[in-house]
Amino acid sequence: MTDYRQGFDDLTREIHEPELPVDGDWPDWLSGTLIRNGPAQFSVGDQDYRHWFDGHAMLHAFRMDNGTVSYRNRFLETKSRTEALAAGEIVRSEFATDPCRSLFGRVMSVFNPTPTDNASINVARLDDQYVAMTETPLPVAFDPETLNTVGVVDYDDDVDAQMTTAHPHVEPDTGTIFTYQTAFGRQSEYQICSLPSDRAKRTVRASLDVARPSYMHSFGMTEQYVILSEWPLVVDPLDLLLRGQPFIENFEWMPERGTRFRILRKADGAEVATCTADAAFAFHHVNAFEQDGEIACDIVTYPDASIIDELYLDNLRGEKPSPGTGSLRRYQLPLEGGRAPSHVLSEETLELPRLHEASARAQPYNIVYGIGTRHEGNFADQLVKIDVESEEAQTWHAGGTYPGEPVFVPRPDATAEDDGVLLSVVLDPADDHSFLLVLDAATFAERARATVPHAIPFGFHGQFFE
Ligand code: CO
Predict the structure, then answer these.
(1) What separation in Å is there between the alpha carbon of 285 and the centre of ligand 1?
(2) 4-465: CATH topology
(3) How far is ligand 1, taken at its centre, from the CA of residue 103, in Å?
(4) Which of 12, 128, 169, 350 has its CA 20 to 30 A from that of 177?
(5) How far is the centre of ligand 1, averaged over its atoms, from the C-alpha of 102 (Å)?
(6) For 145-188, what is each residue's pLDDT tens digit?
(7) What is the pTM of this model?
(8) Rounded to whole angstroms, how far apart are CA atoms 449 and 406?
(9) Distance 135 CA to ligand 1 centre (A)
(10) Distance CA 234, CA 229 (A)
(11) By C-alpha distance, which of 219, 193, 403 is closest to 299?
């Protein structure tokens, strides 16, 4: 095994390569830009960020045209980063890192909170802007050509919430964006918001009172319904104010609550059903669709929330890494509510799940792609394709390398769900660099790779923009 830990080293070099060296049969129809997001600096001065989710966001752009591919990387110039670099120390609270503060400073920060804008998780197009996103509702706009930071998007509304998801859904027919947010307060609530495709204006479509909000990294959406999956990792909002702990460490694992699926109708915001299941935890919803009076809801699940602890940098850089992958599980949610049966769809473990968005999203479908674990005890070291109907799987690996989230790009005029390629940034520690892999999604054979001149730290999500 090679040392995957290079994927948690800082990358501070910002470069532009007009043409990367390419090996193999690069598809000449592949035209557009893959923009990926992830952390790239895990310390400031002599202070270390504690968790994989805390490092400073960096964008990586691969522009493809006529069989060639260019590469550019830039830090997102967030307030979180610029304030920390200016001060020589960590200034803003991140997911699992708090700045060192005196008791006085802590009390003051309660009254004058400065939430992080370190948008390191995902990218999207919002109101004709390209934005980087995290779980505070502060999307950061950037220029897709230069990757220069434009600044935090100013929503044209008075919606107030403190936590959101970096995984909004887009309604296929209308382009309307749906997201969920949590507003903490004397009466906390979940809000389902919609945004038209052409304006950064949120409308609250539904709200649900909640005493102890759950940590939910993503949510589900079908044609008619939104599904909030309340894992029993919950917070007493008073603790967020008073305990002075890093954000996620205020959440408690309460397995006796089980898992609750709250199903809301998009049309009128009504809660139509609550379904229950055993305690579990997840970051990523994969897909959901309506069928025969129930919702099939596919999610990458873990038995409990200890995966969050496993992703602290001390653990990831230690001797026993987390594989960082979970089980693809289908929940069958009855639309009249009640107990939701579930079963695991494949023995292959999975994370960072992706689909053929245009054909599979919110529809009965077959194919899920993701990263997986080939060698027990290793960090995620293969790509996986699971057919959720036949429950068969295919894998790709190249010895000693570590692939990231595979983004599916359909071939023009394709009809089959897997007619296209997967784009994955793969870390090759032995050669001290990463490469962009082009994998044939149907055969799962490598087509080509483009070599980047440096190693790219392990990131989270990216999107292909035509
Ligand atoms: Co995610």
Answers:
(1) 9
(2) Methylamine Dehydrogenase; Chain H (2.130.10)
(3) 33
(4) 350
(5) 33
(6) 999 999 999 899 999 899 999 999 999 888 999 999 999 988 99
(7) 0.95
(8) 13
(9) 10
(10) 12
(11) 219
